[in-house]
User: Which sequence fits this backbone?
């Protein structure tokens, strides 16, 4: 064999040998995160409950969910004059407790099931993917940083502000009805 052919063959074998030992690292992908809007609703007919009992229930619900009420605001809808009176009292109480007046909306609506008043407040819940544990010897084959990224999203106070607003037809979410008996 001539010398240039030997040299070329040696370079080709060395290149194949070195490339066969290279680690394959997959592209990094971001976490799969869903921000789901949740609406909490409390509604009552004041005929079945007295106004005082309804006001006590509402105060209890507001105190149990105070961080949401204080930071995200409340929407109060009324359908009757008794409902309006209670809605105005709730609005004044919230403003006196420090809720920004712009975060409390009071509107007149036709409510279902002969309800006199409805109180709603919203929050965004973060749903993240499950993280698979890292296996020794398989570094670079799976997505890394899953735990840190998920923790970052769950720690956000207003995660809905971090994503683009969906179109009206894309809006999905859950509603939690707070039962009253």
Assistant:
């Amino acid at each position: 064999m001539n010398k240039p052919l030997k040299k070329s063959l040696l370079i080709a074998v060395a290149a194949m040998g070195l490339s066969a030992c290279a680690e394959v690292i997959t592209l990094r992908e971001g976490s799969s995160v869903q921000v789901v809007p949740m609406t909490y609703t409390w509604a009552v007919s004041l005929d079945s409950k007295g106004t005082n009992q309804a006001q006590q229930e509402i105060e209890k619900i507001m105190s149990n969910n105070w961080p949401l009420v204080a930071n995200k605001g409340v929407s109060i809808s009324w359908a009757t004059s008794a409902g309006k009176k209670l809605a105005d009292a709730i609005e004044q109480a919230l403003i006196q407790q420090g809720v920004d007046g712009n975060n409390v909306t009071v509107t007149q609506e036709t409510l279902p099931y002969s309800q006199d008043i409805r109180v709603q407040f919203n929050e965004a819940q973060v749903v993240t993917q499950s993280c698979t544990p890292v296996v020794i010897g398989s570094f670079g084959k799976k997505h890394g940083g899953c735990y840190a990224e998920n923790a970052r999203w769950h720690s956000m106070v207003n995660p809905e502000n971090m994503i683009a607003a969906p179109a009206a037809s894309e809006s999905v979410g859950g509603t939690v009805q707070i039962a009253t008996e």
Q: What stands out?
A: Confidence is low (pLDDT under 50) at residues 168-181. Residues 38-124 form a domain with the 60s Ribosomal Protein L30; Chain: A; fold (CATH 3.30.1330.60). The beta strands are 33-44, 74-78, 104-108, 117-128, 174-177.
